[in-house]
Task: inverse folding
């Protein structure tokens, strides 16, 4: 149908030319016939021209049609030749680009028969990777296999067999080693892909072989560095734990005896200055003991040696007790220390000592970094999802957004004059976060420089202990 439609379109387009050709044929044949009947036969009658007229019309039309068809066919052939020439040019350009790509990449590109016995193409990068000429592969398609490390040869052979004649396979091979003629060992990563013809048959296999020795060595070096770092961290943790224990014993003696001297348990000291100095010694010793205690707690947690002694803890009561314990410190700076709203009565399954330590650390931090006449507020509530929340907020100096993560990391402090004046190791919030994680909870920190800080503790719902309504 397509051919008939094409010819009909051709006939319609050139109908005037065909009509003119038919008329020319008519004139030519009638002219010949008139001359023949008049001159040769000497007997001319108009009726004699009826048959020649039809012959002339048919002959003229046929000649015009044949000429038109020949020209049309010539045009078709000319276009096909031009299309083939353009296709050849594109193929040549594509081949040039392929050669440029294959010959300039660092990976060895190859094409082989489905049975892996005949290599159709191998790029020059093979020579650089294997240290031998790729031209030899055209005579021996499996020549490359003889350079595979003996310990990896079975694995590589299994990979080849799994892909022989198979149209569906994992393109990525397991990494394997080769030994070059110079004795160097290299790690190779291969990716191969089936080439499927239009009829669904497997015609060839193409692939890329990449030298990943540098990456593999970097991975090994990274692993060695990680092992060294872990050993160093373990040694640091062990050292800090041992030193903390070693320092605690003499510090307890210093604190105990200085307290006895300050109280004049064994008699007068002989002067007010002596009493002041002894009190300073006692205060400094207590502070140092607290710092050492924080260090020991962190090292235990890092080493995985700290355990929770879990029981039902009335958190609301613990917070009230902590507020009472910190009230004197807050009063010395004329800081308002109070409940923001009446506490919800919440009981949690947790370590009572650790929970008290968390709360005291937060209150101590808030009071320390809140200027005189400031305010520290505490809230306790339970969310709809069962999460129990404790919030400690202050109107202190606040923390810059860029320093929020820093203040949570152990031994880091924000570079601020007020912070330096107050002193500290920077362990408080880090210890709180670690203890919260031991309880399966989360500590979040919000702060605005110059406006204050809010620390929020979120305990998971499964820690909540619900009272018996009966």
Result:
């Amino acid at each position: 149908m397509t051919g008939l439609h094409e010819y009909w379109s051709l006939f319609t387009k050139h109908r005037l030319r065909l009509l003119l050709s038919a008329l020319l044929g008519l004139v030519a044949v009638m002219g010949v016939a008139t001359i023949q009947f008049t001159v040769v036969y000497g007997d001319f009658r108009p009726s004699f021209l009826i048959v020649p007229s039809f012959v002339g019309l048919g002959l003229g039309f046929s000649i015009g049609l044949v000429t038109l068809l020949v020209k049309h066919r010539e045009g078709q052939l000319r276009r096909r030749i031009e299309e083939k020439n353009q296709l050849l040019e594109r193929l040549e350009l594509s081949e040039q680009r392929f050669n440029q790509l294959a010959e300039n990449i660092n990976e060895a590109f190859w094409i082989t028969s489905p049975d892996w016995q005949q290599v159709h193409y191998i790029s020059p990068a093979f020579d650089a990777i294997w240290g031998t000429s790729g031209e030899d592969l055209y005579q021996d398609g499996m020549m490359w296999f003889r350079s595979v490390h003996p310990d990896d040869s079975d694995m590589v052979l299994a990979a080849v067999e799994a892909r022989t004649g198979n149209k569906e396979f994992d393109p990525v091979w397991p990494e394997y080693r080769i030994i070059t003629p110079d004795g160097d060992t290299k790690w190779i990563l291969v990716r191969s892909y089936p080439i499927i013809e239009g009829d669904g048959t497997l015609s060839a296999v193409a692939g890329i072989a990449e030298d990943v020795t540098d990456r593999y060595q970097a991975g090994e070096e990274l692993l060695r560095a990680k092992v060294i770092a872990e050993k160093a961290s373990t040694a640091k943790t062990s050292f800090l734990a041992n030193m903390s224990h070693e320092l605690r014993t003499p510090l307890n003696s210093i604190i105990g005896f200085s307290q006895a001297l300050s109280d004049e348990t064994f008699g007068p000291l002989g002067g007010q200055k002596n009493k002041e100095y002894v009190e300073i010694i006692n205060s400094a010793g207590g502070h140092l003991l607290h710092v050492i205690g924080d260090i020991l707690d962190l090292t235990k947690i890092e080493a995985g040696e700290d355990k929770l002694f879990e029981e039902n803890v009335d958190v609301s009561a613990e917070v009230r007790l902590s507020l009472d314990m910190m009230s004197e410190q807050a009063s010395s700076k004329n800081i308002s220390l109070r409940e923001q709203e009446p506490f919800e009565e919440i009981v949690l399954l947790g370590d009572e000592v650790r929970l008290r330590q968390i709360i005291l650390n937060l209150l101590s931090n808030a009071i320390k970094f809140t200027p005189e006449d400031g305010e520290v507020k505490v809230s306790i509530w339970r969310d709809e999802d069962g999460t129990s929340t404790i919030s400690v907020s202050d109107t202190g100096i606040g923390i810059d957004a860029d320093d929020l993560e820093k203040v949570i990391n152990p031994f880091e402090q924000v570079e601020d004059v007020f912070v330096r004046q107050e002193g500290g190791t920077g362990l408080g919030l880090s210890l709180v976060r670690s203890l919260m994680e031991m309880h399966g909870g989360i500590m979040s920190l919000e702060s605005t420089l110059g406006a204050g800080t809010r620390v929020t503790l979120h305990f998971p719902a499964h820690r909540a202990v619900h009272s018996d309504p009966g």
Observations:
- The chain has four domains: 2-100, 105-211, 218-302, 310-463.
- Residues 50-104 form the longest helix (55 residues).
- Residues 414-426 have pLDDT under 50 and may be disordered.
